[in-house]
Amino acid sequence: MSPCQHSITPQPVAGVRVGSVCAGIRQPGRPDLTLIELAAGSKAGAVFTRNQFRAAPVWIAERHLSSNAPRYLLINTGYANAGTGERGEPDALACCRAVADNCNCAPEQVIPFSTGIIGEPLPVERVAAAIPNVCADLREDGWEDAAWAIHTTDTRAKQVSLHFELSGGPCTITGIAKGAGMIRPNMATMLAFIATDAGLSDTALDRALRHSVGLSFNRVSVDGDTSTNDACLLAATGVGPEIEGEGADFERFQAALDAVCIDLAKAIAADGEGASRLVEVEVRSAVSSAEAEQVAFTVAESPLVKTALAAADPNWGRVLAAVGRAGIADLDVNRLRLFFGEQLIAEHGGRSNNYDEAAAAAELARPQVAVTIDLQRGNSNATVWTCDLTAEYVRINAEYRS
Amino acid sequence: MSPCQHSITPQPVAGVRVGSVCAGIRQPGRPDLTLIELAAGSKAGAVFTRNQFRAAPVWIAERHLSSNAPRYLLINTGYANAGTGERGEPDALACCRAVADNCNCAPEQVIPFSTGIIGEPLPVERVAAAIPNVCADLREDGWEDAAWAIHTTDTRAKQVSLHFELSGGPCTITGIAKGAGMIRPNMATMLAFIATDAGLSDTALDRALRHSVGLSFNRVSVDGDTSTNDACLLAATGVGPEIEGEGADFERFQAALDAVCIDLAKAIAADGEGASRLVEVEVRSAVSSAEAEQVAFTVAESPLVKTALAAADPNWGRVLAAVGRAGIADLDVNRLRLFFGEQLIAEHGGRSNNYDEAAAAAELARPQVAVTIDLQRGNSNATVWTCDLTAEYVRINAEYRS
């Protein structure tokens, strides 16, 4: 694959306009409402949370996407419209109707997304009142403002663009995401919105999205808590080159989409609530990919591993203890090899002979840390991204509602 | 069942003597070595961690117990003798031999237990040097000192005695335990030592112990991390009344043993690292006991639920989100009812009509908090104990080795 052009400033996608405004949904004076307009004829596919307590907008978004002529994505922060009982769905629908009325489309062409506090009703009247303003703000270069507007406890905007050549011409994929806490997507993700000017069939789009999500958002955990509102949507405007469902162009596109999703997923882990470092946990040579993922997540979600990482303390025994409880019945603990970065830390059931505590601590003090566990029992690998667990995480989550 | 006499000061058990000394294993000047002597003819049974990285003393303890003539339990803190590679087992055996030499018994009659830091070798010579002292300290009223000597990051001694009548005469059960972090026993427990003067057959003793552990230590989680050294041992000296494997006396004994184990398990959760309150999560009306336990543990281990509890913040949406990701495929979220203490907080998928935020916050500000989830889908219940997640937890675990 020839090099893509990678940009951390999100680039416009032909056929997409984005607007963001302050609607005063929960706090005055901060952007909290975003509208993404897709050109007529765009396709969109999405994956949603598997949490049984799905928020009302998740149900509506899934239903509206099945009508298959998406024109607008409406995203609010402040309140998640989850755990809102019987009023949840009518409230979400009323927001869609407000967009439809302003933009001359059917309500089913509006896909709603909400994020924020669970259990409080959505102030529909404030959302509806802001729709004319957010429509007036629609522009091709609105992505970066949107990346800020959709955030909650995030401290950084999560955005990326890839620009690459297909046989039919140049193609762009731009994505933004939000998420810092309640992050353990289960066959879905936090909120992520990705658009391309490529043209794809519904099935090709869906297949590409699920493949990328499986390697990226589904491999992230900040705290093991799966959100009620997770959603990841991919829109393809078709203004740019058409892509068949297989062949070199599709593979090229898939690789670029994987890269965009992994980039956003890593950005979410790096900006995990209270995080001081991004942690990449790679499990090698497992019997199956499910086993590799299970071990990686057990290590990535261990509070004892995560607090040791916060202190850059090479307390490798905690990693071994986490692997040991990951549910592999016939694990041979003497075969396992543990690395921090490139350094071999433990083997043969104990500390490596070459172990150097100062070097190990220096490895863990980096802003990006790699923990690699080689099980030496098969041919499957998996990588999971997480962050360390700091006192700041507790402060953020003990004070989030106050 | 007529009333038991319950005592928070551990009472002597006929046929048991306990000694504790400072052996300077890791830190000078703190009691860190305990020896429990069982009268000749005592029986003992134990359950051990299912972590695949079992510490060396766990292997040795299991093997020595099978020889079935236990006389001494040797417990050290400071170092766990886990992740110590090939030297782990010879080191644990050398400690047993030191006791055997001093006490004129076979090394197989000494059962070793270690707790503390993983990955560092056990200083065998310091343990061996202290054996004559700890033997000289053996006394019937040594239980309370031992409850302190076996602790690591614990802030409180965990001890209880029950005294009750059986048909053959009065009977005592006394137990001590340690554990504050790396607490999520899996078919086993942290360190707990329980003795009775009753006489039981091996099978009756084993059956009684497993029943009690299933209702107590296996229902506790501080941080979801299963230790490499967990062990719970029950010794029966037979100096007191004999108990048949079934009948009224056995039931009486079982109920008392359940109460002792639940008391110690709750003490461990209440003293969880950094904890400011004990949290009892009860799941009612599940389809199976496994389902009830799974939901209860998912809620009890959710960092978002635990940080909200640290702030006494009635952020009930986080409880619903945790239930929703607990893996019940056909959960009807509209049937679920959530209570804090006696207060109904949520039902019909949203906030209860009678919800009173100030009253809910007051309920959560107590030192002992009850979170009850009524699934209304079956006849099985389970109760799990945990604690809140505070910034102090992070501080303790980021600094534990320094």
TrEMBL record, chains A, B:
Known function: Catalyzes two activities which are involved in the cyclic version of arginine biosynthesis: the synthesis of N-acetylglutamate from glutamate and acetyl-CoA as the acetyl donor, and of ornithine by transacetylation between N(2)-acetylornithine and glutamate.
Organism encoding this protein: Halorhodospira halochloris
UniProt site (Cleavage): 188-189
Binding site for substrate: 152, 178, 189, 273, 397, 402
Enzyme class: transferase
InterPro entries (alphabetical): Arg_biosynth_ArgJ (IPR002813), ArgJ-like_dom_sf (IPR016117), ArgJ_beta_C (IPR042195)
Any Gene Ontology CC annotation: cytoplasm
Domain of life: Bacteria
Active site: 189
Swiss-Prot/TrEMBL keywords: Acyltransferase, Amino-acid biosynthesis, Arginine biosynthesis, Autocatalytic cleavage, Cytoplasm, Multifunctional enzyme, Transferase
Family assignment from sequence similarity: Belongs to the ArgJ family.
NCBIfam families: ArgJ, PRK05388.1
Record gene name: argJ
Listed CDD domains: OAT
GO biological process, one term: L-arginine biosynthetic process
Oligomer and partners: Heterotetramer of two alpha and two beta chains.
Site feature (Involved in the stabilization of negative charge on the oxyanion by the formation of the oxyanion hole) residues: 115-116
Catalytic activity reported: N(2)-acetyl-L-ornithine + L-glutamate = N-acetyl-L-glutamate + L-ornithine; L-glutamate + acetyl-CoA = N-acetyl-L-glutamate + CoA + H(+)
Associated pathway: Amino-acid biosynthesis; L-arginine biosynthesis; L-ornithine and N-acetyl-L-glutamate from L-glutamate and N(2)-acetyl-L-ornithine (cyclic): step 1/1; Amino-acid biosynthesis; L-arginine biosynthesis; N(2)-acetyl-L-ornithine from L-glutamate: step 1/4
Designated name of the protein: Arginine biosynthesis bifunctional protein ArgJ
Keyword hit for rRNA processing: no
